[in-house]
Amino acid sequence: MDFITKLENIIPSLPTQERKVALFIIQQPQKAQKLNITDLAKAAEVSNATITRLTRKLNCKNFAELKLNLASLGTSLSSTIDTTKDETLYEVYEFYNRVLKENWQKINIEQLKKVVKLIQISKRIYIFGIGSSGFTAQEMNQRLLRMGISTFAITESSSMYMSSSIMNSDDLIIAISSSGNTDEINSSVKLGKQMGATIVGITGFSDSILARMVDIPILVKSTNFMNDARFVNSQFSIMYVIDLITTLLLKNDDYRQRMSHTINMVLNRKLNK
Predict the structure, then answer these.
(1) Of 65-79, 171-185, 226-240, which has the strongest mean pLDDT?
(2) Is residue 172 within a helix (H) or strand (E), and if so which, with residue range?
(3) Gap between the Cα atoms of 229 and 243, Å rounded
(4) What is the SS3 string spanning 227-248?
(5) With contact defined as beta carbons under 8 Å apart, do 129 and 177 qualify?
């Protein structure tokens, strides 16, 4: 059992403050490995004594030994991919690697930064999506809500159109559509734009109706162009973009603190049941 797995296994039994340290180490092991005990305590918002108590529960003699365990983790992680285990399953790994690389080449970073700025200054944010894109819209909505941002995920066409009819220049629509040609989304986006809302579209096709209509198009790699239908996940590229947007947002101290607070509240509630 590696060190991080051991840490994950004891989290349910840890007091709240020690749990905060454990989560920080699990989520950012490389960063934790570089910090001294005082800086780690500050980053996790706990006392030095809390870290000392956690260190003992992990059967480490002292903080230095804990850091040695984290340092050795980097070596073990680099050798976890065994391509000989199963050729078919490795193909899936390679597929997703390829999608990520091609998305990185396709994505316009400056456009993403504009979207982040719009999210920060807009009074209300509406995230549109239908079908599988609707689930993605809900995921993005949850992330923004945890940062304290006023957002609404709308995944039903009538509600989408009704919401667009009462928008104004304070509003932002983020429309998610893999094809960019979903009638229900496009008609609602068109109405919202007429009412003065700013429109961001996340789609896989630059010549789609949605991409041509929006103020800021965010183009992703369409998995429809990949050569093996077994692996097609139409939302994978879009979720990658949402990861990028939310990561940029979390550079803001207020958003990051609110996110940390809400995650800790939810996790404590789950683990204390």
Answers:
(1) 171-185
(2) strand 171-176
(3) 24
(4) CCHHHCCCCHHHHHHHHHHHHH
(5) yes
